[in-house]
Amino acid sequence: MLALLAPVLRAEHRVNAQDEPAPMARASVAPGEAVVVGQPVTVGIEVLVPTFFRGAPAYDALELPGAIAFFNERGTNFTERIEGRTWAGQRRSYTIYPNRVGRYEVGPIPVEVRYGVGSRVVVDTAYAAPVRFDAVIPEAARGLPVFIAAAELRLVQSVEPAPDTIRVGEAFTRVVTTEVDGTLSMVVPPLAFDSVEGLAVYPAPPRLEDTGGERGTAVLGRRVESASYVATAEGSYTLPPVRVDWWDWTTGRLRRAEAPGLAFEVVANPDLAAEIELPPDSLDVEEASAGPGATGVDERLRRWLTGLAIIAGLAYVGYRLIGPRIPPWRARTRARRRARAESEAAYFRRLQAAVRSNDPRASANALAAWLDRLDPIGGTGTAGELVDAAQDPALGTELRRLDEVLYGAGSSDASSWSGAALAGQLKSARRRVLHRPAASGLTDPSTLGPLNPRES
Length: 456
Hints:
Immunoglobulin-like; about 35% strand
């Protein structure tokens, strides 16, 4: 973000501002100090400085035994009057999913801030006081074999093809999807597809999906499980319903979700019997019952059917060996695509697009995100370090122009700003820093929207 442009002025110091109040941080916990296991807890952090921000605050990752914690990248800015003075503030948050019973303590939480004092950049650390919460399993749910909590849980079932009546040797697939609102797919336990006499059961690896959570959207966890059933004997069959007992944290009561059972008939398969039957093996019988030349024809037919059976057997074995590997292969492919989307090159393309669109705010945000991924410049990943690494004063000039457009006296001229020159300087700087020995990796993961809100 654009506060990363301030170090271009090379006025960054770690000092104690004698004439300015120290920055402050405070933490809050929601929905409260008591939640059920698996229910998300939001720990909000507000950090305030007495003047204005000159860099993105740096937050540490949370590590809580028995819990999963995520830092929410999206933040908001605000101003607050404290003892007759206007302070600039930013709100960020962590989302914590407790997965065992017990008391959790978060903090004290350090936040490193950079703010302006005259022409200097002051670097200091503010500490938010610890917050605590308890995760419990309600009394009414303690008898469950597995405790699951959600705002809503649904079981969605599909069967393809519909098995009202099938023949021996035919197959169908039962797919059961568990959807949970407000929490992650990892809290959903696996379903059991029990074996049934007369049916061969082939469960597939589960597929876990999580969506939402960005920009305040609701979190949805989804676990998809399936099994293929192959009929091996005639008869009447009933597959039991799938039931999941779960705790609704919005109403504070135990609920049950159910996917209906399946009832169907398996009948004889004449086609399968005809495929399996082979010509008689006795040459005497063939010669006695067939006319001249029939023996050679029958022998060729038998060899053809034998070869066909071998091919079918090899195909089945290959499917059993390779089939289970297809979902992991797809997962690896998706992971590679995500890695490419999160690569330094991908972020630089987004930066170039933002700069060439002549949008100063989008350009500042894209610049900060790209600098976080540009390892060769080392340090903390500021625009000033990029200028130093590239040894490009012209780049520094263009970055200062962008800084002035957004935060200087000429901010009203933002609509007339052109990024063409900056785009070219950034491209040249990137080429230079990527072709020099790397100094050290960047470790600051913070990216923010606009840093310095103006009081209306």
